[in-house]
Structures are given as structure tokens and as C-alpha cells.
Write a structure and sequence with these properties.
The complex is a heterodimer of chains A (about 325) and B (about 325).
Chain A: H1 3-17, E1 21-25, H2 41-45, E2 50-52, H3 57-69, E3 73-77, H4 81-84, H5 88-95, H6 98-101, E4 111-116, H7 131-135, E5 141-144, H8 148-160, E6 165-170, E7 192-195, E8 200-204, H9 208-223, E9 227-231, E10 234-236, H10 240-250, E11 253-260, H11 265-277, E12 286-290, H12 299-305, H13 309-322
Parallel strand pairs in A: 1-2, 1-3, 3-4, 4-6, 5-6, 8-9, 8-11, 11-12
Antiparallel strand pairs in A: 5-10, 7-9
Chain B: H1 3-28, H2 43-52, E1 57-61, H3 65-71, H4 75-82, E2 106-110, H5 117-129, E3 136-141, H6 148-159, E4 164-170, E5 173-174, E6 177-178, H7 179-182, E7 198-202, H8 206-221, E8 227-232, H9 250-257, H10 261-272, H11 277-300, H12 319-322
Helix pairs in contact in B: 1-2, 1-3, 1-10, 1-11, 2-3, 2-8, 4-11, 5-6
The chains are: A alpha/beta (about 325), B alpha/beta (about 325).
């Protein structure tokens, strides 16, 4: 199943199951979605439930909050995380805080879907990873879908949660063919051990999962070790239990993210690991992240600005050699 | 004007004003902190609108104590919220600017200028698709009409013919910035008139506010789309307690005080013989008692328990999966 088809199926099934589920955003209706995620839904559910909005992100999220207060279950699509900055006031000051400010009287069952990350030469204003901004906000749930199975189950879960969810996707994943599993009792807040290993834990999420997996055979061969790979899936809340179990076994941790290194989401994860698991570690943690530059247009520079399988393998090899692996 | 309605208008406006004067005193004593935005002078807008718009959903800005009381909130729980007590309408976590009560379809006190307008628009969308006719009422100040959220909202509400009353309290000043300095004109209904019916009314006259909102409500109920009302009004106090209001002339203040909504209603009702004079004295005494009780209730209410700090961040039913 294609990643985008998994998302489409989740929305379709949610809309079929509950009349209050609506989707709104730029081009989600008649056009079928910029990334074809909402393809076919307009014909099936009509203009009242598949809502084409003006190019006004503040209002897409603001309207969705109002719909949620009014008894609907809105899924707001923002075309890219860069544009979500225009809606940040609504996400942060309104959706995330209404429940608390009202002493628990307000309920905002809202899902905001948005793709981010570096795609192919879209330049600085269409290539960012802003998960760290949203994951730092109490009141929000932040999920990052790297694969079809998680995308499908987690999105369905998000739509029916009564709290506001930021649902992060990645632009390069939409057309990818992936394995898909039907799963009972799926827990979207649990990190996934993608590959088991004994000597090193690599934490990652979204598209970097695939770059890490591509790098792993080289790392294992060159360092003569076995590597455990964990996809975090849920960024807020973070599944520290799965992380902790793995680090207690491997004693070493590397985090790979596409975000800029300074203040990136990985900085938070590594800080927590250092606070909580310092004496479990046999080596200082390593962060492999994007460079601290706006993402350039030129393909060579663009690839130089983010981790790639080759860079991941090379950096982990060097780090491993310097720290007794 | 009929006797019962005038009595209700007077009672609620006077209750609101005495509530605010008491809140001001309690602020001076240190029992209330943070930002306290008083409505004194603008009571006709709060009371007239809430009396007319009695069924649908209300989204409001941060100057909302009188609006909340006029909507049906108990002055005791409002005062307790201002005191930050556990018995407050938002359990002491919202304060003056955040009085929410979904059982009264009252969502607000929003402290981001114009931030509640897209939300009101979305709720109006929900009401339209649900076939609810009562619609939505959004109240905001003159300053909000310069924000992008305002323009996005009037555009969307008009494009989709949503049942939404935009009610602008034009008191001329966004804190200390006169609307004419930052807007091309001071008559703000001009900003909406190409999108929907838009009119300017005397916001110092509770009967006129009531009449205008009633007309707008009928327009909504007929499914004709949004409606814009600009009420010219004035706040006698500063923007908040930290503002002494020195940017306004005494002459300007006197002009508006001569149009005081409470005195005006009383004067006209007596002159027309609609309400006997004794009613006003009796009502004032009753209100004094009610305000004293509200302060006593707030003062004697407990502080929130410390574990409340961690409550209400997420929904109860989600606690297991998010913690």
C-alpha cells in the first residue's frame, strides 16, 4: 500500500464511521489534495464534509477549532509545515490551551495533518522540519508517521481522540509503496523497535528511519556490531520506556533527525536520556542532524544540509571507533 | 420598550457595573492580580447583545466579565475566578481573561486580539451543516478589525453564508492607540459592508443594541449569512488596571459620560412612566447585597489544590495513553 493510500483509507473509514468527521484545507476537495491524500473523498462525502478553504492557514486551523467546539471532528490539512507558522497562534494559543484555561470545560477534538521535511529542491520555504516547535507545547499531542501501518492506525486514533493532535507526515513518503498490517489494539504512543540489536541503539523518526536502515548494514559490518533501530512514532508523549529498555541493553545511543541540530527535537530526547539514563551509557550520545542553515535549492547543497545514509554510516563509524566500539 | 425588559436591562447593566467597581477595589487591595480589563461605560453592548442573542454560541474577547454575567454566569463564580480560586468558573486557571462555560454556549474570554474570530467562524460552519438556525455571536473591539484574522473571517463567513454576527465594540482606542491613527477611517462597519449587511449603531443605548442584535438574529435565522454591527461606545477606565487613560481628553470623556447607558435608560424609563422610580432604589440595594456576597464567596473560597497544576492539560479519557 502507498503511504498516501494508508492516510486516505484512515480518513475515509473515519468519515464513514462518524458523520461528524470533516476534512478541510487548501485543495483538499475538488482538486483531490496536493499530495492526493484526500483523493476520492469529495465525490464520496460532498462539499459539506470535504471543505475547500481559502489560502488562509490561520483560519484553516481556527475554523477547525470552532468546528470542534461546535461538535464536529475536523481534520485540518496544512499543505506544508512551513505554512503552519501562519496558523501557529491558533495551534499554540488556542487549540493547545483552551482545555487548561477553562479548567477542563472545553474539549478540542482536532487533528492537524501536515507534511514536512526536505523533499526535492523545494528551497528554504518549503523544506522545514518544525516538529520541535509543536512537541514543546503542553496540550498538544504530536505524532510522526513514517510508514503506512502507523499512518493508518495512528491517524484513525488521532481523529477520534478528544485532544488536539499534530499529525506529521513527510513529503517524500507519500508515493512510497510499503508493507501494511492490520493490527488490533494499536497503540500510537508506543515507539517501534524496527530492528533488534545488542550494541547500539539508533533512535529516529519520519523519513530518516529509511536512511538509517540503509546505513545499518554498513555500520554493522564496519564496526562489527549489531544495531537496534527504534522509530519514535510519538514525539509528544515520548515513549521513554521503549527507549530505556533498549539503552539498558545496548549501552550506546545515536539519534538521527532531519531537523536542524540546534534546538532540534533530538536535543530534547538526548537531554532526557542524559538525565535519566546517564549511568547506563558507556559512551557519550551522538546526534546526527541537519545543518544549521536554511535548506538550499541546489541538489548537492540540499543533500549536504541533511543526513544521508552515507553520512550516517560514516559519522557513526567514526564515533564508534572513538568510543570503544 | 416594555417594563419587564427595561427592568432586566437595568438590573444586568447595574449589576455589571457594580461588579466591575468592586473588582477594581479588590484589585487595589491585591485580591485580584494579572490583567483586569473593565467594561465600565460599555455595559449596553454586553447586556443588550446577550439579551437579544439568547440561544446560539458566543465567542468573546478578554473584556468579558459583564458579558459573562449577562449571559447567565453567576457573579460569584466570576468573582472567584478573578480571585484565582478553585470555585471559579475556570477553577482559577483562567482568570479575568478566560471565562468559559460551554453549558451557556459561552466560549471565551480570548486574550489574543481577533484570535477568536476564525474560531467563531468555524463554529458557525458547524451550526450551518448541523441545520442549527441560532448561529454564532462574536464580539470584539475596534483594534481587532485591523488584524488578518478579522479579514479572513469576514471573507470566509460571507463566502459560505455562515450564521455569524460580527459585533464590534468601537470604543475608539486599542489600549492608547486611536483607531483613526492605524485605520483609514473610524467608522468600522465600512470594513465589512462589501461582504455582508453592516450597520453602525449607538452602543451607549441598550435598547438600540437589543434591537440591532434582534434584527441581525432574524437575518441569521433566515439563513441569509453573516451580519456586521458596529456599536459606538466608550470605556471610562483604562485598557486595563495598569493604564491611566491619560491619552483621552476630559472633554471627550464628558461627552460620553453624558450618554451613560445606565443613567440614560433610567432617565428615559422614568420620564416615559414605564418603570416606577422606587424600582431603581430597590434594585440598587439588591445588587449591593449580591456583590457583597460575590466578594465574600470569592474571598472565602479555597485555593486550588497543587495537583490541579497537572489536571486539564489533556482530556481525562486520554490520560492513560498520553502519560
Amino acid at each position: 500500500m502507498l503511504y498516501r493510500e494508508a492516510l486516505n483509507r484512515a480518513i475515509d473509514e473515519a468519515m464513514a464511521a462518524d458523520e461528524s468527521v470533516v476534512i478541510l484545507g487548501e485543495d483538499v476537495g475538488r482538486y483531490g489534495g496536493s499530495y492526493r491524500v484526500s483523493e476520492g473523498l469529495f465525490a464520496k462525502y460532498g462539499a459539506k464534509r470535504v471543505i475547500d478553504t481559502p489560502i488562509a492557514e490561520l483560519s484553516i486551523v481556527g475554523n477547525a477549532i470552532g468546528m470542534a467546539i461546535g461538535g464536529l471532528r475536523p481534520i485540518a490539512e496544512i499543505m506544508t509545515v512551513n505554512f503552519s507558522l501562519l496558523a501557529m497562534d491558533q495551534i499554540v494559543n488556542h487549540a493547545a490551551k483552551f482545555r487548561y484555561m477553562s479548567g477542563g470545560k472545553m474539549t478540542i477534538p482536532l487533528t492537524v495533518r501536515m507534511p514536512g521535511g526536505v523533499s526535492r529542491q523545494l528551497a528554504a520555504q518549503h523544506s522545514e522540519s518544525y516538529e520541535t516547535l509543536y512537541a514543546s507545547i503542553p496540550g498538544l499531542i504530536v505524532l510522526a508517521a513514517s510508514n503506512a501501518t502507523y499512518a493508518y492506525h495512528a491517524l484513525k486514533h488521532a481523529i477520534f481522540l478528544n485532544d488536539p493532535v499534530i499529525f506529521l507526515e513527510h513529503e517524500l513518503l507519500y508515493p512510497m509503496e510499503m508493507e501494511f498490517e492490520e493490527k488490533a489494539n494499536f497503540d500510537p504512543f508506543k515507539a517501534e523497535v524496527v530492528k533488534e540489536g545488542d550494541d547500539l541503539t539508533i533512535l529516529t523518526y519520519l523519513k530518516m528511519r529509511y536512511d538509517v536502515l540503509e546505513a545499518v548494514p554498513t555500520i554493522e559490518k564496519e564496526l562489527g556490531i549489531s544495531v537496534e533501530v527504534i522509530d519514535l512514532n510519538s514525539l509528544r508523549p515520548l515513549d521513554m520506556k521503549t527507549i530505556s529498555n533498549s539503552i539498558k541493553k545496548t549501552k550506546r545511543v545515536v539519534l538521527v533527525e532531519e531537523d536542524h541540530k540546534t534546538g532540534g527535537y533530538g536535543a530534547e530526547v538526548i537531554a532526557r536520556i542524559t538525565e535519566e539514563l546517564f549511568y547506563e551509557l558507556d559512551a557519550p550520545p551522538l546526534r546526527i542532524a541537519g545543518e544549521d542553515v536554511p535548506i538550499p535549492y541546489n541538489r548537492t547543497l540540499e543533500l549536504a544540509s541533511i543526513p544521508t545514509p552515507d553520512k550516517i554510516a560514516a559519522q557513526i563509524k567514526l564515533w564508534g571507533q572513538n568510543h570503544g566500539l | 420598550m416594555n417594563s419587564a425588559r427595561v427592568k432586566t436591562f437595568y438590573y444586568l447593566m447595574k449589576l455589571g457595573r457594580e461588579f466591575e467597581l468592586a473588582a477594581k477595589q479588590e484589585y487595589m487591595k491585591g485580591n485580584i492580580a494579572g490583567f483586569l480589563h473593565l467594561d465600565i461605560g460599555q455595559e449596553a453592548c454586553s447586556v443588550g447583545s446577550m439579551q437579544a442573542f439568547d440561544k446560539g454560541d458566543v465567542f468573546t474577547h478578554y473584556r468579558e466579565h459583564v458579558l459573562a454575567i449577562a449571559r447567565g454566569m453567576d457573579p460569584k463564580v466570576v468573582m472567584a475566578e478573578l480571585f484565582g480560586k478553585a470555585t471559579g468558573v475556570s477553577k482559577g486557571k483562567g482568570g479575568s481573561m478566560h471565562l468559559f462555560d460551554p453549558t451557556l454556549s459561552f466560549y471565551g474570554g480570548d486574550a489574543i486580539v481577533a484570535g477568536h474570530l476564525p474560531i467563531a467562524t468555524g463554529c458557525a460552519y458547524a451550526r450551518k451543516v448541523q441545520g442549527e438556525k441560532a448561529g454564532v455571536f462574536a464580539i470584539f473591539g475596534d483594534g481587532a478589525t485591523n488584524a488578518g484574522a478579522f479579514f479572513e473571517s469576514i471573507n470566509i463567513a460571507a463566502a459560505w453564508k455562515l450564521p455569524l454576527i460580527f459585533f464590534c465594540e468601537n470604543n475608539y482606542y486599542a489600549i492608547g492607540t486611536r483607531i483613526g491613527w492605524v485605520s483609514p477611517f473610524e467608522e468600522l462597519f465600512n470594513k465589512a459592508k462589501n461582504y455582508m449587511p453592516a450597520k453602525r449603531i449607538d452602543g451607549m443605548d441598550v435598547c438600540e443594541v437589543y434591537k440591532a442584535v434582534t434584527e441581525a438574529k432574524e437575518y441569521l435565522e433566515n439563513g441569509l449569512g453573516p451580519y456586521f454591527i458596529e456599536a459606538e461606545t466608550y470605556r471610562y477606565e483604562g485598557h486595563s488596571m495598569s493604564d491611566n487613560g491619560k491619552y483621552r481628553s476630559e472633554e471627550e470623556m464628558e461627552i460620553f459620560k453624558s450618554r451613560d447607558p445606565i443613567e440614560k435608560l433610567k432617565r428615559e424609563a422614568i420620564a416615559l412612566g414605564i418603570v416606577e422610580e422606587s424600582y431603581f432604589d430597590e434594585t440598587d440595594k439588591k445588587i449591593e447585597q449580591e456583590i457583597n456576597e460575590a466578594i465574600e464567596f470569592a474571598a472565602n473560597s479555597p485555593e486550588p489544590e497543587l495537583n490541579e497544576l497537572y489536571e486539564d492539560v489533556y482530556c481525562k479519557e486520554c490520560t492513560n495513553v498520553v502519560s
